[in-house]
Amino acid sequence: MGKRIKREGSNETVVSSTTTAPHQSQPANHEITGYMPLRHEFETEYENEAESLIKDLQFLDDDPPFDTSLKLAILDIYSNVVDKRLARRAFVLEHGLLDFKRHMTADKARGREEREFYNALKGVSRFLDSSNLQTVLDGLVKEEELRKRISVLQEYRRNGIRSFEEVSVYEAEKKHLVPNTF
Questions:
Q1: Cα(92)–Cα(19) distance, rounded to whole angstroms?
Q2: What is the predicted pLDDT for the residue at 138?
Q3: How many other C-beta atoms lie within 10 A of the C-beta of residue 37?
């Protein structure tokens, strides 16, 4: 519903349509199905059935020591699963993986080589935070650019070019000798 505002000295009523939908923690309302932002959790978590292993676990006073140690080991395993779950959730949130549109836009803005480097680095991205990952990616792209520039300079050297003044003459002659095939 909009708000009605009556202006002073006027018979006009202005209807404002500044309604905002309330935040709802339902997966259908989010770009990545299954994430509930108000609860900061996913509908289906890592090893989601881990709770079923401990749901009926009871510690009794007359339990033998072996049973108690077995139950404690099960709780330790469950604790490790919860730690892994939290680490995976933190990774998704830290790397901004829920913002699918932003990632698609960034991926389209990358060049072919940068996209190849990025895809190759996805396996090690869990060891780096997003800023360090971007720094490594930028370094690899710069390295590739430098390698290409070095190979061009080596081609000039092989062809006897010793100064940058000779480069423009060489490129002009090369352009006339090699016709464009486009």
A1: 31
A2: 87
A3: 14
Q: CB 117: neighbour CB atoms within 10 A?
A: 19
89 CB-near residues (< 8 Å, 6+ apart): 40, 41, 42, 45
Question: Tokens in use for 77?
Answer: 């395993």
Enter the DSSP assignment of 52: H
Give me the amino acid identity at 165. Answer: E
Helix (H) or strand (E) holding 67: helix 65-94
**How would residue 8 be classed by pLDDT, with cut points 50, 70 and 90?**
low
How far apart (Å, rounded) are the C-alpha atoms in residues 60 and 68? 9
Encoded tokens for 103: 């990632």
In the chain, the N- to C-terminal Cα span, in Å, equals: 60
Domain ranges (residues) in the chain:
1-44, 47-109, 111-182
Could you report the per-residue pLDDT of 103-121, keeping only the tens digit for each? 778 778 888 888 888 878 8
The pair of structure tokens assigned to 156 is: 């000039």
